[in-house]
Amino acid sequence: MLKFDHARNALRYLLKEYKIKEIYIPYYLCDVIRHTVFEENTKILFYHIDDNLFPAAKFPKESYILYPNYFGICDWNIDKLVKTYPGIIIDNAHAFYAKPKGFASFNSSKKFLPVKDGAYLWIGREENPFKPPVNRRKIFDLYNKKFSKTNNLKIDIPKEAVPFCYPYLAESIEEADNLAFNLIKKGLKIYRYWNNLPQNYNEYKFYSRLVPIPLD
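Structure (tokenized):
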């Protein structure tokens, strides 16, 4: 386990240490990660994701692929991907307590803990020493019980998963905006992930209609 100040620098270390010349990354991703790859002069090959947040295309088996554990709910997707692609790198910024899997994985402590910064990088299947709090998963399950019938994102996660938030995919932009407005009125901080994407991209629905409900 290696410690860094930010998750992007954990990725930067991998790009340099393993002399990664090109990497597949999803369109649906924060700009910070994308800019980090550009700064290291690594060629980016973009890929789309489907309605289940899974890569919509197949990759050459020898490729390096960055796959985010979106909202901390993509454990089953990761299990499928690591069986096929030995060079997959898991971005667990939304899954601080997840088991390291794939060629490498990194997380971000500031999204889960009251700290200014901090990130951890695992090469291979090392042990994650951090023990998850029980309450976060309980709150997630309560939201899922309340919203699962109307949530357009079908959620199925292992019992040990500890998500970053409860991602609610509304039927329309208006419904998403209304839900976000009401949650903000109750004192919750609601963000939209990430930057705008073209409307003809499948990912546009996540940008425009997904409301990430915080669990803390």
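Residues 134-147 form the longest helix (14 residues). Strands lie at 2-4, 22-26, 43-47, 65-68, 88-92, 104-108, 119-123, 165-169, 210-214.
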